Amino acid sequence: MRTDLVAALDIGGTKIAGGLVDGRGVILERAQRATPARQDGETVMRAVEEVLGELAASSRWEHVRSVGIGSAGPVDASAGTVSPVNVPGWRDFPLVERVRATTGGLPVELIGDGVAITAAEHWQGAARGHDDALCMVVSTGVGGGLVLDGRLHPGPTGNAGHIGHISVDLDGDPCPCGSRGCVERIASGPNIARRALEQGWRPGPDGDASAAAVAAAARAGDPVATASFRRAARALAAGIAATATLVEIDIAVVGGGVGNAGDILFTPLRESLAEYATLSFVRRLTVVPAQTGTDAGLVGAAAAALLRGPGLVRL
């Protein structure tokens, strides 16, 4: 792996994080803005430009040779555009072109956020040493990416492994992507919280109605909160089992804010996986928490930039 310094962006429905990252995956500088996800596309782009501007003010910026972007999807790496389901103002938005212009023409590598966490986990985390893996980010949305035969496999447009939009409930709720009963519609943080509220769970005195608050209530024994997490776990298990059946992965790595719920998520997830992954060649599939934490998106985006070129090579 080359040792050039790269600028990395991790763009999601909640935050836009940026960093300057070296060839070892060490983040040397950081910047962050909240994602104005419900505003128009240019407002969202201004937030990206502010993050890049803050990074460019660093004395280290002169050593930056390229930019890596991990974005909520779907993305189209071949066209350089993004259409995040949870950022309605961006539809076929020319993010690569705009970032290239903002950074004075630096080369830009775009991947989906699920592929970014996969790159990070295969490079430095729980999937290290595994030749066939699915890595997932379960947060505001649900994304994923694949390692096959020891190589990151983003696919032609950068969306391979996008498990969040596998349908696991044929008669389920409509998903903003246009389908129905998607993993994301059941297992993302906002949908875990939505389900709990619909079933009668109520936030505490602080009014926190996030998935983290639902997880805390589940740990305290609240049956409605527990049921919402168990339903999310079943959806994730169904999607993971389907993926394993198709491509014979031997490990699934789960990160993101919902993954931080710990046993509240992983215990029912492993129980449900045993029900869905029943064929002989998938029974040894393991599910583990991600290890690269909140920096996975940045580290993975940096890996994409460090390994620029068709068909990202072995990490």
TrEMBL record:
It comes from the Bacteria. Gene3D superfamilies: 3.30.420.40. Pfam families: ROK. Belongs to the ROK (NagC/XylR) family. This is Sugar kinase. It comes from Streptomyces malaysiense.
